[in-house]
Specification:
Length: 283
């Protein structure tokens, strides 16, 4: 046995038994870093991160359907279509409208689930910004459900030749773009920016700044929309930007081994090694 080994053995033998047992207990309590498991606080982290990818893709499909169906797209983006045209298009594409309503509702719900997961991971879900975020998400989902009801009513009424109901449902459905930037959108993204800024850094800092920019943009567009309806085009551009934000954030979270881990902390293995060293260091 070498002299260095003897010295190490003597140092270990002269260490108090309480310190030795405490260090061994701490070493045993260190999680196995070789396993690819999620954080015990959120075992469904990767599924929730996947919602941030699936949700925007469904919304992109929903908004892309009119571009693939010229007659439907020309109706939706025309200024003031006639009742006859609304009934004819609604009756012709009633199945496509029903499918589009499902895609929109499911996509919006998945996006909201991911945003709430971000708040939970950052530790800010129970604070005031987190509660405001929850309120904004509830308003957003309620607004989407209302638009779904109007879309389904338009398609069903047009199929049965109920012109008055089809016209009223269509007019109510098309005002979604005016309501969206006034209350739900700025509430969600400004509250989300506050949650990400004050909690654990579960996303890079650029996401926090972009969320604040999107929220302020929606707030300004909502104010301008009160004066002129032409601002709805800017709301559509911001809606596309928010979908890109959620998609990028979902990909960023999914690519990490543990989506709940903070960006401003060392890697898990490095932290565990440091922890073992501190537990076995004699005082």
């Amino acid at each position: 046995m070498s002299s260095a080994t003897k010295v190490a053995g003597e140092a270990q033998s002269h260490r108090p038994s309480g310190q030795r047992s405490s260090g061994m207990a701490q070493a045993r309590s260190v999680p196995d870093v070789t396993r690819g498991t999620e954080s015990p606080q959120d075992p469904y982290g990767r599924w929730l991160a996947g919602c941030g990818i699936a949700g925007p893709l469904l919304l992109a499909l929903y908004f892309g359907i009119p571009a693939l169906v010229p007659r439907l797209g020309s109706l939706l983006y025309s200024g003031a279509p006639t009742t006859t045209r609304i009934v004819a298009v609604g009756a012709e594409y009633h199945r496509l409208l029903t499918l589009g309503a499902w895609v929109q509702g499911t996509g919006a719900l998945l996006c909201v689930v991911f945003l709430l997961a971000l708040a939970q991971w950052s530790g800010g879900a129970s604070g005031l910004p987190g509660r405001i975020l929850l309120l904004g998400c509830a308003v957003l989902v309620g607004l989407v459900l209302a638009e779904m009801v109007f879309t389904l009513t338009w398609a069903n009424s047009a199929t049965h030749g109920q012109s008055a109901s089809a016209r009223a449902a269509y007019d109510l459905m098309t005002h979604f773009a005016q309501v969206f930037p006034i209350v739900p959108a700025p509430t969600v993204y400004l509250a989300l920016a506050a949650v990400l800024a004050t909690g654990r850094a579960v996303l890079p800092a650029i996401y926090t700044r972009l969320a604040a920019v999107i929220g302020i943009g929606f707030l300004l567009v909502g104010l301008v929309a009160v004066i002129t309806p032409d601002a709805t085009a800017a709301a559509g551009s911001l809606a596309a930007l928010q979908a890109v934000w959620i998609l990028a954030a979902g990909i960023s979270a999914l690519r990490r081994r543990n989506p709940t881990e903070s960006f401003d902390q060392p890697a898990t293995a490095e932290r565990n090694i440091m922890y073992v060293d501190r537990g076995n260091t004699a005082i």
